[in-house]
Amino acid sequence: MDVKMKSRGIGLSFFVFNFFVFSSILPLSFSAANQPRSFKKPDHQFGSSAVFPVQGNVYPLGHYTVSLNMGYPPKLFDLDIDSGSDLTWVQCDAPCKGCTKPNDQLYKPKNNLVRCVDRLCAEVQLTTDQHCATPDDQCDYEVEYADNGSSLGVLVQDYVPLQFTNGSVVRPRIAFGCGYDQKFSGSTSPPSTAGVLGLGSGSASILSQLHSLGLIRNVVGHCLSGRGGGFLFFGDDLIPSSGIVWTPMLPDSSEKHYSAGPAELFFNGKTTAVKGLELIFDSGSSYTYFNSQAYQAIVDLVSNALKGKQLKRATEDPSLPVCWKGAKSFKSLSDVTNYFKPLALSFTKMKNVKMQIPPEAYLIVTKYGNVCLGILDGTEVGLENLNIIGDISLQDKMVIYDNEKQQIGWVSTNCDRLPNADRDFEDDFPHTYPDSFGILSDQCSATYDK
């Protein structure tokens, strides 16, 4: 199948933080010879949960990824997990700009392009003036992210095989993007991943599509380990029965961000002048961003608390804007956390609801042996008054986005191991342990329904 390339000129940087989203999906046509039939729905309305091992870290990699089987026969693609955007896309086996993967790691469409007239196509456009020259035109998509990054490509629909924690196997056909034009600007290097796994709350996300097919609850969660790795899950089977702190999602009619607030900033257990913060939870952002006023207040609070201690500003460290050095190089965060005080975000509409942000959730130790503040000025990079809670502050917490109850929850936990990890999966599928959380292997023994 020939993919017709659409041209556009946009200067980009990429994969720092992403939160543009899309909405609405209908069942799509799909025609290809020798393809497996679609999955058989389970006897009950919803399945269990699909769980995926996560790789990566905040520093030095700057992202967390999962490997997802896509297509038939299934092929693994490593995708940046992004709760701030909806559309999932992979690098396309077409004349490609900005692609970093060899040809055998690209996705090749097989008579499965989504048509321009499909309703879904209108929902993944940047503007509302979409025009189809003919009904059979391919559906081109273009995604722009908050850091001015973007992806241009064509929309396809293909099988995404999954195994649930109850042992059942499904192979739904899911719509996603086949991206052939990823560009980068400035000093930003191309990402090592094959694309983005959009986890946002809009209907174009894989989560929403699985829910609309009756396979899972409309719930997604992640647990990112501060030591690297972790796990991601679709559905509500792994949610602990107690201990979770919940706060309502803020309604947003235009962009389906996972937002909460207003919140007040606490420093070392005491209130501050920073109040009324609306917060976006974004696993596609390595660091946490506050508006200029809140950011400067945090820098002042942290710096003033360091007076009289054996730390000096390390202006020569290019890793992040604000860094400190000690009498000797630091090896890990355990060397420095005793110098710093904890932060917290108190959600003022919910009594006693706080998100604790200890020093290890806002600091990194760099390759130069210094410690740096992993909270950045969002206004300075074009976020205006938006505030983003990124990976650094979400580490070592199970974070749950419950779209059915419109609430966000979190609980401190060990993200190196699944809860209820004593359950084994059947046949040749892996056990639910940190290195293999039940995702289908590249060459699984299961057969497709005929």
Automatic annotation (TrEMBL):
Highest rank taxon of the organism: Eukaryota
PROSITE patterns (UniProt xref): ASP_PROTEASE, PEPTIDASE_A1
Keyword line: Aspartyl protease, Hydrolase, Membrane, Protease, Repeat, Signal, Transmembrane, Transmembrane helix
Residue stretches making up the Peptidase A1 domain: 64-411
Chain ranges passing through the membrane: 12-33
Catalytic site: 82, 282
Gene Ontology BP term (one): proteolysis
GO molecular function: aspartic-type endopeptidase activity
Signal peptide (residue range): none
The keyword DNA-binding is annotated on this UniProt entry: no
SUPFAM superfamilies found in the cross-reference section: Acid proteases (SSF50630)
Family annotation (PANTHER family): ASPARTYL PROTEASES, EUKARYOTIC ASPARTYL PROTEASE FAMILY PROTEIN
Assigned protein family: Belongs to the peptidase A1 family.
Protein's recorded name: Aspartic proteinase Asp1
UniProt organism field: Lupinus albus
